Please model this.
Amino acid sequence: MSTARNIPNDHGLTIRMFTTGLMLVLLYGAVIGLLIYFGISLAVVLVFAAVILFVQYWFSDKIALFGMGGHIVTPEQAPQLHGVIDRLCALADMKKPRVALADTDVPNAFATGRSPNSAVVCATSGLLRRLDESELEAVLAHELSHVAHRDVAVMTIASFLGMMAGMVTRIMLWTGLMGGFGGGNRGNNQGGQDNAALVELGVLVVSVVVYAISFLLTMALSRYRELAADRSGALLTGRPSALASALVKVTGEMSRIPTRDLRSAESFNAFYFTPAIAKNGVSLSTLFSTHPSLDKRLAQLSKIEAELGRPS
Amino acid sequence: MGLFSSLLGKTKPVQSNLDALFALPSASITLQSAAGMSCSGHAGVCFKPPSGQGFEEMQTEVVSLLSMDGTGGLRQQEDSYGYQWLVVEDVDIEQLVTRIHLVNSSLSDAGWGPQLLCSVFGLAELPTPDQAAVAETAGTPPELTAGPGRLLTSTAFLVYLFKRGTFYPFVPQGHERRDTEEELKLKSLVAGDVVVETDLDRWFPLWDLPVG
Model:
C-alpha cells in the first residue's frame, strides 16, 4: 500500500515562538504603563522611534543590498539562479522575489524586503562557488521561507520595544547631563528637585533593564524564526539532508576565510543564512546569538528526515 | 499570507483544481481552426521527489497504474534541476489528458500535492497538405501526416501550474530563449477554453524540457 506524506506539526517550536512573542507584548504593556506612571512624555519617544523604525522597515531591501554590496540580476545574467528560484516559487505558490548577487567570497545568502511583494533574495558569489545544486536549492528554499513568513516585518515589530527603550535611555542621559542629576545648586525647592532627579534615575534604570530584557527576547525570537525557516525550507524541497549538508559546508568554510572579509560581514549577521563569525573574534554566547547553533539546526533537520521516511 | 497568519505560522495548503485539465482537448480544437496547431501527443508531469521510502513506493505505484491503463509510451526522466518527470505519449488527446490527470490526482490524493510542480502538454503545427505530399514522395517516416493521428514534434507547450490551477504558454527558441510574442499570441487563442495564468511573473521558463 502506498504511503501518504505525514509530517506532524512541530508544536514545541510553535509554542516557544508564541510564548516569546507574548512576553514581548507583555513587556510593551508594562513599559507603557510605567512611562505613563512616571509622567514621561510618551508621545515624543514613540513618534521618534516609530519614524526611525518605519524608515528602516520601508527601505529594508535597499539598505540591506547597499550594505552587502548586492545588485539585482536579471534571468539573462544569472539563468541558473533564477531557474532554481522560479521552480521553488511555483512549488511554494508564492510570488517570485527579486534576485540579487553579492560579489564576495564569504558564502552566505539572505532575504530582505518589507513584504512578500517587495522582497529580495540575495546569494553571494562565494556561496554559488561552494555549494552544489541541491544544497544551493535548499539554502534558497530557507530564504524564501523567510520571505513567506514575513520575518522582516515580524522582527522589526519585535525590535521596536528594544529601540524605544534604547531611545528613552539616551534621552534620559542627555537631560541628565544637561540638567544635572540631583544638582542641589539650582531652584529653591530642594525636595522637589531631588524627587524629580530620583524619577529620572528610576526611568533610566527601568529603560536599561527593559532594553536588556527585550534584547534577549528578540534574539530568542530570531533564533526560533530561523529554525522555522529551516523547517519550511526542508519541507518545501523534501530534502532536509541537502540543507544540513549546506549548513555544514558553509559554517565549516567560515572559519577558513581570511579575517578581513569576515569582519566586514559580521555586523549584518541578523540577515544572514548563518552568522559570519570570526573564529578568533568575540565568542557570542547562545543567548546573544541571532541564529541557533549548528548542532541544534542539524538535529531538527535529521528529525524531519526521519519523519519523511516514516510511513503514515 | 496575512501578517497574523505569518505570526502564527499557519497556512492552508492549496486546493488543487485538476478538473481544469479537461479543458485541454477543446483548446486543441480551437488551436487547429485558429492557428493550424494541435496537441502534439507528448505530455509530462513534473514533481520534486522528496527523500524517504514513502514517495518512491508511490511513484512505482503510479507508473504501474499508467502502464496498465494506456497504450501510449511512458518514461521517467530527471532534469538538470533535480526534478523528476513522468513523460507520457498518446495520439488520443482525451486519453492523454486522462493519464496526466491520473498521475496528478493519485499523487495529490495520497498527500504528495506539495511536491507537484506542473504538467506540460506539447503543441505542434499541423503539417499543411503540401508538406504531407512532399513527405510521402520523399519517403520520410509518417510523422508529418495531418491530424492528431500521429505524434508530432512539439514546438510550443502549454504548462499547467498545479498550485495555481492555471495554464500558460511556453515557446522555447534556441538555447535558453523564448518567443514571448508567440506565447502571448497563444494565450489569446486558448484563453476562451482554458484558465490562463494572469500573473505574467509566474510564466517561468522550463529549459531542457524532457517532453518531446
Remarks:
- DSSP finds six helices and six strands in chain B.
- Residues 140-147 of chain B have pLDDT under 50 and may be disordered.
- Chain B touches chain A at residues 1, 3, 6-9, 11, 14, 48-55, 57-58, 61, 81-83, 110-112, 114-115, 117-118, 161, 163-164, 176, 199, 201-202, 204-205, 207 (CB under 8 Å).
